[in-house]
Amino acid sequence: MTLTVASLRMWTASNYVAVHEYFTSNAVDNWKYSQFFRSLGDQDVGQAEEIWRDSLTKLQQRPETPRYVHAACQHHLDGVKALEGGLELLALPEDHSDHTGTGGATTGSTVSKRPIVLSGPSGAGKSTLLKRLFADYPDRFGFSVSHTTRRPRDQEQDGVHYNFVDLEMFQKGIREKEFVEWAKFSDNHYGTTFQAIRSVNDQGKICILDIDMQGVKQVKETNLNPYYISIQPPSIEELEVRLRGRGSEMEDAIQKRLAAAQEELDYAKEEGVYDEIIINGDFETAYAQLKAFIDKGE
């Protein structure tokens, strides 16, 4: 089989979290990490494979490295070499359950299914759609729990709806490049970490990210390669009715959300930004469209 730039890029995009974890969490030189992606940009497949192989060799020379890391990284290299342009990444071997360390953690770093980014204005109905989707398919999808510095609302649980952290901890995560995306809105910070995505993938589920427009733009700068779905209200007027119906925000906050919503809706009109746009006027219709797109994507 022939290794091509397109196939290697496709593999890297499908396995971005694995590549990131391999080059960073396992103490491989960060310079190699940047050089690997630079090789893809320069269309130098040979150099990219050489960097991967050299880093793998050094990693395997460390006796303290868990056995499952060796197996996982070797599998990734085998996957690269076995690719042919246009083919999907080869699935994990049947005996992947053997690739575990003393703690029993699975390799889990492989992202064999594309994540899904669900985006839309606050009040568009994303949370309600996701709640139904997870209830119908608990073993198929997983939610990337975002971090935020805002206070929990009534009924919100830490670690379930959000990871609620203070500003100091959030800023530490930014400095240490733990976030796939993050943004600040109404004096509060929101963000998705690489670890949040890994946690979903470790369960063998498709990871779903619920993020705003700024988050979408940041994710597009990575190699995560998800499907992008925009959830929209029928109109700005309807969105305002929904936001006021919550009864949880002051007038100033509502106006800020409406302004941000208009900007996000305008952004969604740009060609190629989203793979699917769903107008959530009738819940059942919107949910059926969401399911149909996801089924088609898989």
TrEMBL record:
Keyword terms: ATP-binding, Kinase, Nucleotide-binding, Transferase
* UniProt cross-references to InterPro entries, sorted A to Z: GK/Ca_channel_bsu (IPR008145), Guanylate_kin-like_dom (IPR008144), Guanylate_kinase (IPR017665), Guanylate_kinase_CS (IPR020590), P-loop_NTPase (IPR027417)
Source taxon at top rank: Eukaryota
E.C. number: 2.7.4.8
Gene Ontology cellular-component terms for this entry are:
cytosol
Q: Name one GO molecular function term.
A: ATP binding
Q: Where in this protein does the record put region Disordered?
A: 94-117
Q: Which Gene3D superfamilies match?
A: Guanylate Kinase phosphate binding domain, P-loop containing nucleotide triphosphate hydrolases
Q: Which residues form the Guanylate kinase-like domain?
A: 113-295
User: So what family is this one in?
Assistant: Belongs to the guanylate kinase family.
Its recorded name reads Guanylate kinase
